[in-house]
Amino acid sequence: MKNQGRLIAGLVLTLIVAIFAVLNVNTVAINFGFAKVHWPLILILIVVLLLGALIAVLVSAGNRVSDQRDTKQAVEQQKSLTTQVATLKNQNEQLQTLLNERDATIEKLSQQVPEKATSDTEHPQV
């Protein structure tokens, strides 16, 4: 369906250009500075139109290449950051495990301290 719309638009534009060409067959002089030529007005308009289209395509191609390069750099940076996040999550898990082990050790030692203090008061050392 999309291509049919483009085909119809292309045919309509071609018809408009053909009508425009028939109406603008008068010869006009163009001075290039070093030469003066006499061409039909429609030919001059078509040449200028094609030059404008060529310039637009060249500018667009330059922007597209720049956008592709930027996209590639962003994808590489995303991969790098994803790897860093995974590494940091792994380190965080290891540190959390170590912290839990130390908390358990501290809890054991804090339970032993009151027992030791109670046993020292019952049997004083001389």
Automatic annotation (TrEMBL):
Coiled-coil region(s): 78-112
GO CC annotation terms, alphabetical: plasma membrane
Keywords in UniProt for this one? Cell membrane, Coiled coil, Membrane, Transmembrane, Transmembrane helix
Annotated Pfam families: LapA_dom
Q: Write the protein's name.
A: Membrane protein
- Protein's UniProt keywords contain Signal: no
- Please spell out the taxonomic lineage of the organism that makes this protein: Bacteria, Bacillati, Bacillota, Bacilli, Lactobacillales
Specify the domain of life of the species encoding this protein: Bacteria
Q: Indicate the segments forming the Lipopolysaccharide assembly protein A domain, all copies.
A: 24-85
Concerning InterPro entries, the annotation shows: LapA_dom
Keyword Cell membrane present in the record's keywords: the answer is yes
- Segments crossing the lipid bilayer: 7-25, 37-59
